Amino acid sequence: MSKQLLQKQADTIRFLAADMVQKANSGHPGAPMGMADIATVLSSHLNLNPANEKWLNRDRLVFSGGHATGLVYSLLHLWGFNVSLPDMREFRQLNSKTPGHPEYGHTHGIEITTGPLGQGISNAVGFAMAAKYAQNTLGKDVINHKVYCLCGDGDLQEGISYEACATAGHLKLDNLVVIYDSNNITIEGDTSIAWSENVKKRFQAIDFEVFEIDGHNFDQIDKAIVAAKASSKPALIIANTAIGKGAASMEGSHHTHGAPLGEDEIKASKIKAGFDPEETFAVPYDIKGAFDKLIKGVEAENAWTNSLSAESKAKIEELQNPDFDSIVYPEFEADSSVATRDSNHKILNAIATAIPGFLGGSADLAPSNKTELKGMGDFPNGKNIHFGIKEHAMAAMTNAMNLYGLYRVFSATFFVFSDYLKPSARIAALASIPQHFVWTHDSIGVGEDGPTHQPIEHLSQFRALPNFYTFRPADATENVESWKVALKLNAPSAFVCSRQGLRVLKDTKEVGTVANGGYLIKKREGATVTIMASGSELMLAMQSACKLEDAGIKANIVSVPCFDLLVEQDREYIDSIIDPNTKVFAVEAARGMEYYKFADVVYGMDTFGASGPAGDLFKEFGFTIESLVERIKNDL
Fold first, then answer.
1. 160 in Cβ contact with 115 (< 8 Å)
2. Tens-digit pLDDT profile for residues 139-188
3. So what's the pLDDT on residue 604?
4. What CATH class is the domain 324-503?
5. Which residues contact 91 (CB under 8 A, 6 or more apart)?
6. Cα–Cα separations (whole angstroms), residue 452 to 368, 422, 611
7. Which of 205, 286, 291, 443 pairs with 583 at a CA distance of 20 to 30 A?
8. Would you list the DSSP string of 75-122?
9. Pick from 108, 124, 219: which is nearest to 180 by CA?
């Protein structure tokens, strides 16, 4: 392909991006213009099928700098995805297909939601992990695509990128190619004001093969991509570029990063490149044809499909359509004492035994989280993933693994360390990614480790997160029922499990089920009180109700294994389990402020915890039968 045509392709991308930002009067023209040459060459290497964005063996391309959406939407349009010029004219407008950052499930062709810097590069590692596992289990003749990631200075300054890329190097993910748009510019100016590390040496130290090129030299770009694809290691291409490349007078300026160039600057830039300065959103016919991937994509997918053996097709079908009803769940003896982290361990193994595509791991806490899948081997050949102490990247990588198209993947850590992965959990909720988070050591019951390890506010913050379902089972049986619900949700879920043993309750549900989020477990005729609780506090509530009854106060008990599901129920159901004629109390060894949606009084934590034996702490903070009974009497 001639350099003149390549230049025209790249300039078409530049001006589409600049026109989008200018019309919206909002956005980031600098990065798309700077990366246009790279994107043009990379386009010729990608195997995509716009007619089927879910084709399993397609190359994955992740735009880690989510602000570079002008580049994303330009490419999707030029490649033949369902992103039209009218869509691009509605860039950043309400209800358009072209929002300010790429959103999975909203815009055709977007592989995953990126936005917060560092997420995308971690997602790319996750896609590469899923692809490597698929290659090892299905065969290299079945899965042989690449995962590409375009990232910038901001992505590599975020700590999550180091966590993820160190994992890629450790796992020798030779299917990963990261292209670093090194323009030395961030919002505040030159990167040197805050950053001076040697990126090449950093990536060599974590076992990447590193190439360094002029990001505007088409020959160098092509040769680097060819070499990176052939590498036996994950590859980083450092592409030195000028932000706002092609801007008549603003090329290289940080002012092109996050603001429109201005109509005069755009017209001058188009004149300089030989484009009509009065025409906006222009795509010359020969340029659309040079990019279009529709025909080749259909041919590539058909050839791949026809190459599959009957056995491979059957395996893929089984992975893509898991039969969750086939799981044989463990049973637990009533009145026995089982920590929910222990019951969760048996449940995870039951699921992994029945579901070929169920796998996962922990941030170096499998013995404590109880997440080992026994006898199922270590990733990337087996189902146990050793993420290392990298909570944030773990969650972001697992998000991508769950969107790969074959697997249901869980991640695990202590509940208090969910702080380290909250941004990735939020993205999972925003994009409806069905990741399962396993979080153990759920309250002040952690005991001697002290307040740094005792989650107090965490239940409240995750219950406040839309489209995220936090389960805190009261016993092993409720844990089983919670998993049955969570596996069929089109959303992320979390299992908040106890370290201490919890008594297995008899099946005494009177109204509702775990699927309703809350249910009436004990009803007393003539009750004047309702007590709501979750997790270890449910038994406390039930025992306290018996003492209250001895004092002539009758109390109904409502178990709340999933507050998020409970708030979705209609008023008729709520009134059937929470008698409107009773005074409602909620008890939880956490902040618990969300319970005021239903409760008149909430007994929760008003301070951080302390270091000491768990029993002493529950007594200190008022979570005993005697204390709860006295408090309820006083508050009636």
1. no
2. 999 999 999 999 999 999 999 999 999 999 999 999 999 999 999 988 89
3. 98
4. alpha beta
5. 20, 21, 23, 24, 27, 69, 70, 73, 98
6. 17, 17, 9
7. 443
8. HHHHHTSS--HHHHHTTT-TT-SS-SS--TTTSTT--S---STTHHHH
9. 124
Compute the mean pLDDT over every residue in the chain, rounded to the nearest whole number: 97
d(CA 46, CA 41): 10
90 assigned to active site: no
- Residue for token digits 């505007």? 216
Active-site residue (options: 265, 391, 478, 588) = 391
| Residue 506: pLDDT band with limits 50, 70, 90 | confident
pLDDT digits (tens, 9 = 90+) for 409-433: 999 999 999 999 999 999 999 999 9
- For β-strands 583-587 and 555-559, DSSP reports them as unpaired
Cβ atoms of 203 and 236 within 8 Å: the answer is yes
Per DSSP, the chain holds a count of helices (H) and strands (E) of 24, 20
Q: Left if phi > 0, otherwise alpha if psi is -120 to 50, otherwise beta: which for 412?
A: beta
User: What is the distance between the alpha carbons of residues 250 and 264, in angstroms, rounded to a whole number?
Assistant: 12
| Structural tokens at position 514 | 């775990």
Q: Which pTM value belongs to this model? A: 0.97
Sign of CA dihedral 340, 455, 534, 545: positive
Determine the pLDDT at residue 187. 86
- Half-sphere exposure (Cβ direction) of 505: Cα atoms closer than 13 Å: 23
Ranges of each domain in the chain: 3-299, 324-503, 514-635
Model pLDDT for residues 342-361, shown as the tens digit of each residue: 999 999 999 999 999 999 99
What is the distance between the alpha carbons of residues 304 and 312, in angstroms, rounded to a whole number?
Answer: 12
Distances (CA, A) of 380 to 158, 174, 222, 374, 386: 26, 13, 30, 16, 10
Q: What are phi and psi of 185, to 5 degrees?
A: -130, 135
579-597 mean pLDDT: 98
CB count within 10 Å of CB 394 equals 31
Of 359, 369, 406, residue with least CA distance to 391: 369
Question: In the structure encoding, which two tokens stand for residue 526, read together?
Answer: 């003539």
What is the fold, at CATH topology level, of the domain defined by 3-299? Rossmann fold (3.40.50)
**Nearest to 609, CA basis, from 370, 430, 398, 415:** 415
Count of positions (residues) in the chain? 636
Q: Which two tokens stand for residue 177?
A: 């190619």
Tell me which of 3.30.230.70, 3.40.50.920, 3.30.43.10, 1.10.10.60 is the CATH number of domain 514-635.
3.40.50.920
- 3-299 and 514-635: identical CATH topology: yes
Handedness of CA 344, 350, 355, 360 (dihedral sign): positive
Decide if 330 contacts 343 (C-beta within 8 A).
yes
